[in-house]
């Protein structure tokens, strides 16, 4: 029997459709109680300004937030990371986990009026993204063939099972690109890149560099009656204090990710005009850590790295530097994602235990009380990370380790970490719903690649871990995958290739008049076709 997973798109009834075309609107779907009105403009902060809006060519965070309203993927994900329909209305997986068949919606159009078909999916996944998108290339290179069975049916046949294959179809991982515009061209130099064309609910209107990006409602959108908003302005506000003031004064109606410094969060939470949520980041599941260059002494000794874990109070970091946002991390897999293993070695805050490990490793205190010296390259992502650097310096000094703080700009930080020119640094990475997509890359030996950021820049190598990650990715049974990932996590937590800090939570502030901003695990990167403004 086929192992079927079918998910059908909710459709508006004829009565609801008629209502959807009127203003104000009222949806009649069960569970939707509030009236949804058409019209209104939403101003959203975007920081930093994205380099381009073609999501197939660039997947930086700000690009995803803006372009997620222009482009779409085949699937999106619920808060508990279950796949949900988007451009694919249903899908099937063969019993051996090697054949995935997607049925597409039949009324989607590109913004220039051309129909969206299976041929666009084949082009996007077998040509465009294979050339431009590192994560998509890693996933779709596992396909033996990608075929359009008809105009609205696409079939992916894998060379071997790949457990997280469905997770690869959300909009930032596999944005659908228009074949009729890009086929046979230099994708990166195509003139159409200046005026992105997707299937999403909002169309590109204008980009005033350094000031704003303006999207307007797609009146030919394939979901009847949507979107509700007239337009969205993404406001570029480089200064953190100015971003907080913009929220207080109501000149912007939404912030996300790192827009607001953590020390401003308690004050903004008290504003009467906004609501704050930390939901909507489950798919990304950001995890922060101290990056450790395990090539350098004394960091090549795991006892020294274990001592670091005991010397640093992660609860203090969460409470006093991140102002309660997030959870102290216990290992390499975020507890909100699949395959997290809680039964790993524990590293409670214990400076005496840290000193004992340093003694055992041979790092005796000198006349000045110093056992060792290391450099810490502070991540240049705002004052919160600077404060974290000051804390780590003080915490390590308590156990006899002298930390020299180093600073650089964003480009310099990427250059130094990716080229292994550091002792310690900070970092946080996204996990993309499955360890095979967002965790493995950091710890396996074949991803030690000089000059490549977000790879195994620590230089950690353990053949047993390599084998466990490889086996887990090639298995499509969750129980077997859990056993393999649990074994890998226990080894990694023992070895401490990085010093895990927090399972991060980002605060999203939304003006109370705007509803449905965060409805899925990709949060503010969603299409916003359901967002509406309550008018009073």
Automatic annotation (TrEMBL):
<comment type="similarity">
    <text>Belongs to the bacterial solute-binding protein 5 family.</text>
</comment>
<dbReference type="GO" id="GO:1904680">
    <property type="term" value="F:peptide transmembrane transporter activity"/>
</dbReference>
<protein>
    <submittedName>
        <fullName>ABC transporter substrate-binding protein</fullName>
    </submittedName>
</protein>
<dbReference type="Pfam" id="PF00496">
    <property type="entry name" value="SBP_bac_5"/>
</dbReference>
<dbReference type="GO" id="GO:0030288">
    <property type="term" value="C:outer membrane-bounded periplasmic space"/>
</dbReference>
<feature type="domain" description="Solute-binding protein family 5">
    <location>
        <begin position="82"/>
        <end position="436"/>
    </location>
</feature>
<feature type="signal peptide">
    <location>
        <begin position="1"/>
        <end position="35"/>
    </location>
</feature>
<keyword id="KW-0732">Signal</keyword>
<dbReference type="InterPro" id="IPR000914">
    <property type="entry name" value="SBP_5_dom"/>
</dbReference>
<dbReference type="InterPro" id="IPR006311">
    <property type="entry name" value="TAT_signal"/>
</dbReference>
<dbReference type="GO" id="GO:0015833">
    <property type="term" value="P:peptide transport"/>
</dbReference>
<dbReference type="InterPro" id="IPR030678">
    <property type="entry name" value="Peptide/Ni-bd"/>
</dbReference>
<keyword id="KW-0614">Plasmid</keyword>
<dbReference type="InterPro" id="IPR039424">
    <property type="entry name" value="SBP_5"/>
</dbReference>
<dbReference type="GO" id="GO:0043190">
    <property type="term" value="C:ATP-binding cassette (ABC) transporter complex"/>
</dbReference>
